[in-house]
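Sharing a chain and its predicted structure for anyone who wants a worked example. Both blocks are below, sequence first, tokens second.
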Amino acid sequence: MPYLQGQEDARLLFNAGRTPDWILIAQLDPNRAAGMRAEWAEVTGFGNITAGSHKVDIRTGRALGFAAQPTLRSPISFPRWDTTTGSV
């Protein structure tokens, strides 16, 4: 159960908009710390989504309804296809 508790801890911190203190977490039960690290990577999109930008369900980790898209740390832009030349 420590792994699952670590996952819930990560979700609570994400909803609060706080970044975990990884040095302190490393001193916890290794299974709880592993669950927390894995879930933190999942809810933050492996570092691309800012903590607190939207809420996640504490039990499932799924995103709850939010008005806007999650706040990305760096904007993602895709090149536009030029239909006249057939290239990017």
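Comments welcome. Residues 1-88 form one domain.
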